[in-house]
Design a protein that fits this description.
single chain, 204 residues, mainly beta, 13-stranded antiparallel β-sheet, 11% helix
């Protein structure tokens, strides 16, 4: 009888602890349309999960369009921050041009970089702590001069405010421009070797 009571008490305690932890885990989701030359070619979902362990961001998109042949790309990015600092990021890109993976990992006093994308490779470490990435910009309006790590290329970039609520970052030679209203990201215009495209907040 005593053993049953002990087991029941343990179960209740574990349930309460689990419920408490879940109560502190909150996820916010934003959905975007990906637009090229006026046509919607895909969708993107951005998730931010806040927990006692830190913040996690996930960016997931799928696009398909015709450019001298059919092009399809699925993109998945997972980014983790602890105490405000970037700790790790993984980017996976699957397409008919190939499948690529980039990892960024904090290692004591620097980031280990293994960046791979179409015709691009980078293993140069970054010897400073960084507190922002492009994925974070989908939920937080930056400040002029903020330093970010591009999760896909493993390279540093600096935020440049060109007018109120409009910011630019240079990602491997391409300019990405972010537009905010009331602190909420409305759209992103991205330079691309094939053709510039935009990511627009979906309002249901």
């Amino acid at each position: 009888m005593l053993l049953k009571s002990y087991k029941s008490a343990c179960f209740v305690l574990l349930f309460m602890v689990g419920a408490t932890l879940n109560a502190f885990c909150q996820t916010k989701t934003n959905t975007y349309d990906i637009v090229l030359a006026g046509f919607t070619i895909g969708t993107m979902q951005a998730d931010k999960t806040t927990s006692p362990k830190g913040e996690d961001y996930q960016i997931h998109s799928k696009v398909e369009f015709w450019f001298f042949g059919k092009i399809h790309v699925e993109f998945l990015q997972n980014v983790n921050f602890q105490n405000g600092q970037l700790m790790k990021a993984t980017t996976k890109s699957d397409s008919n041009r190939g499948n690529f993976v980039t990892t960024v990992n904090w290692n004591k006093d620097h980031y280990d970089i293994d960046a791979n994308s179409y015709k691009f490779h980078n293993e140069e470490s970054i010897k400073q702590a960084v507190y922002g990435t492009p994925a974070k910009l989908y939920f937080h309006e930056p400040k002029d001069g903020d330093v970010l790590i591009s999760e896909n290329f493993g390279m540093l970039t600096k935020v440049n405010e060109i007018e109120k609520g409009v910011y630019e970052i240079d990602v491997n030679g391409n300019i990405n421009r972010f537009y905010y209203e009331g602190g909420v990201l409305q759209k992103v215009i991205l330079e691309n070797n094939i053709k510039n495209y935009s990511i627009k907040l979906r309002v249901d």
